[in-house]
Amino acid sequence: MKKYNNRILWKMAVRPLKRNKAKNRMLLTAVILSVFLIFTVLTVGSTYMEMEKIQNIRQKGAQFDAVLVGGVTKKQLEWCRERKNITAVGLQAYSGYPEKTKKDSTLHSGLIWCDEVFWKKQMAPARDMVQGRYPQKENELMATRKSLKDCGMEHLGVGDSFEMTYTDHNGSHTKNFTISGIWDGYGDRQVFFVSKKFFEHSGYTLDQTRSGIMYLNFDEKYLRENERQEIMTRLNLGEQQYFEFSQEMSSWMEVMTGAAGLAAAICLSAYLLIYNILSLSVSANIRYYGLLETIGMTNWQIRKFLRRQMALLGAAGIAVGMSLGIVVSFRLIPFIVTALGIHQDDIHVVFHPAVFVLAVGVAAATIFMGNQNAIKTAGSVSPVDAMCYRGSSENRRRHKIRRGPVLWKMALEQIGKNKKKSAVVILSLAASLSIFLCLTTLIQSHGARTVYTNYMNEDLIVQNDTLLKEEKSDWKQIMDAKFIDSVRKLSGVERVSSLKRAEIVVPWSGEITETWLKKFYEKWQEEPFGEKERNEYKEHPERFDSFCYGISRQEFDYLKENENLKTEWKDFREGKTCLLYDGAMSLPESTFLGKTLTFWEDRQGSPEEKITIGDLVSEEYYGAGSGKGLVILISQDYMKEMTGTLVFRMNISYKEPYDQETEQKVLQKIQETPGRKDFSYTSKIEDLKEARRAQGNMMGVGIGLTVIIAWIGIMNYINTVSGNISSRQSELALLEGIGMTKRQMRGMLVREGILYGLFSWLITAAAGIGITYVIYEKMNSNQIPFEIPWIWILGMAAIILMICALVPVIFYHIIDKRKSIIERIREIQ
User: Which of 213, 420, 718, 760 is the most buried (most CB within 10 A)?
Assistant: First the structure.
């Protein structure tokens, strides 16, 4: 008998699924969307995070967890190599710099030696191509196309030789070098790698401040704060050494916490999606459960029947949802990225078994909990009550006749009629919108244009490289007023500003110069500042090369905003106050601020000037140069009185940002000048290309992820509204029966949809933005400022409101076409 009952219950579970396809299709769709949401978003999201790791490696030029700069002692090196949780110790050492070749006399490359660990293990993930081998002999070089172009030797290849003059710790030398290899990849490519023999004969050693760098890899992804502090303590860092953990190592726990929060939000959205449709399904079937009781079916049999019915629907939905997720994640997203033309590398989709388990688990748990609610409801309603069930548990309230927009009031009353059901619909849509907001903000903030920016966000910064040479006789004015004016007149150029530099002499000023020189020698020199240097400065301050830069009002305002300057423009413009460049030396403000500085231009007959130091600035833009003396910033108006100024840099902004045509005009103008080989430039367009190159397909995958979230949110709402309209068709028919016109009906449904959309966006704005900010800060390992992409969000808001308004009307129109008003009213028992 028991086996017979089981067969009957299975048949009863299957039969309604075939007969009521429309109702069951909505529940099946909800399960499919939920499983698809969790699997696809977490799988594609994991792929995105993996691509972000690759981007970070490419930006750094190597894969490492910590770096020690400023020299490496033998004791520190031995300790790191003996420590068990340090898996790799790579070394790099500065060995000199190229001065000139037969083709160019202003070179920008460096001569670097690296050990086998750094070259073969840590740097390998950031390389795309290697031809030849790493240098073994003293006269061999491993080059890049960029470093060869800097020397005017871009036509050379592996095995070719060229003559180059270079400077190391022992002085200047001229030697014939052979290219043993050429590599390409990411990071700093304006460099020549040299052999260990070259480094050993360069006069530099690993423990020198300017030379040794050590890169470390750990076997853990995250080290606690006390563990990081212990490592820094055991290294016993010197005054000029700087040890730093990578952002990934320092913020891994925060990133994982943010990712877990995002995953929880996605699971909540999936839960609400299924639960909402399940509650509608229960309400629609209460009468059916009552009829089953009238023919003798026990509560136990009804519970078993419901469990089997939900098991069949759940299994089918999970299988289809998982299949769709696999197809979209592993096939469709890579196809779309390629079709959009943003395919750069092969897309390796990251799959974690935990995502599979989570997707199935959340769907199964939601179906189980929702089904328990259905069982409870079905068991608590008697057969007589079930026959009269209307699906609303709210107490009827008396209606007051008020003036005003009737349709808006009816729409609002309908939403408030069953507050629990409406709340689930609104929260479900708000959860999807909040996830869209969060992911869009995260992905857009990591766009290539936010990763790299020039000083003051200028499009092009052109530099006079002759002013970086040690011999003052080599300094030239290659950017005169005529040249700058010709660039300013080019079509497409909006603004051109110049940064002028003058050499000044700052006499011994007691505490000011004493503190500056001590700090400078501690930070940048191998030997400490002593009595010999003090006496030399007192007698010949001009040998220490102090400089002043003339800045515009725009530059001053930029510094005032970004460095919280207290100096006022009026005093600065008139030459009463100046700004002192800090030089990353952590100068004590009490020693400098408010003090009077005496200086004069380093030209015969120049008058002595006195100026008050208003603020310290740390902007590296003003730190170029080889002098040991003070660097001050004064106004361009005040600088006009100086006669020996030279233009160091020219900043150019285009009318249209990232305008390649305008940039080509400017670069062509540079090529037409006699000193074209003495120019260098920093281009925002080239930085953008480099950033996109480092990101690979990361942004394409990110766009695919946001599109999936948007699509699921919309499908969630469509599925929910279709179920809502279907369950209310008799009620809507009664409204028509008492005289409500089709136009009024459509107007009421449009208003209902708009209210659902507005309430969802209000929750998203109130709670979603706050949650987005918390998750963003947790996952923001690159320290990019938080900014909401309003264009994307407002665009999505407009689309959602439009869909919310149209979908109820469309489904009402479908029901109206299928059944007449009489047929729908007859369904009311």
Answer: 760
Exposed (0-12), middle (13-18) or buried (19+): which is 423, by Cβ within 10 Å?
middle
The two tokens of residue 742 are 């089709």
DSSP string, 787-812: ---HHHHHHHHHHHHHHHHHHHHHHH
- Specify the 3-state DSSP secondary structure of 763: helix
Rounded CA-CA distance 93/209 in Å is 10
Say if CB 437 and CB 793 are below 8 A apart.
yes
Q: By percentage, how much of the chain surpasses pLDDT 90?
A: 32
d(CA 495, CA 667): 16
SS3 179: strand
The neighbour count for residue 767, using CB atoms within 10 Å, is 13
pLDDT band (50, 70, 90) for residue 517: very high
pLDDT in tens, 77-111: 999 999 989 999 999 999 999 988 988 888 888 99
Higher pLDDT, 676 or 396: 676
Neighbours of 494 (CB within 10 A): 14
Q: Which residue has the higher pLDDT, 167 or 821?
A: 167
Helix (H) or strand (E) holding 214: strand 212-218
pTM: 0.69
57: tokens are: 């490696």
Beta strands in 518-564 (DSSP E): 546-551
Q: pLDDT digit string (tens) for 563-598?
A: 889 999 999 999 999 999 998 888 999 999 999 999
Residue 547, token pair as written in the block: 């400089």
Q: Identify the CA nearest to 268 among candidates 698, 767, 724.
A: 767
Q: Report which secondary-structure segment, H or E, holds 651.
A: strand 646-654
Among candidates 475, 504, 485, 501, which has minimal Cα distance to 636?
A: 501
328 contact partners, CB below 8 Å, separation of at least 6 = 36, 40, 708
> What is the chain's alpha carbon radius of gyration, rounded to the nearest angstrom?
36
Residue type, 4: Y
* 265 contacts: CB under 8 Å, gap ≥ 6: 431, 434, 435, 438, 771
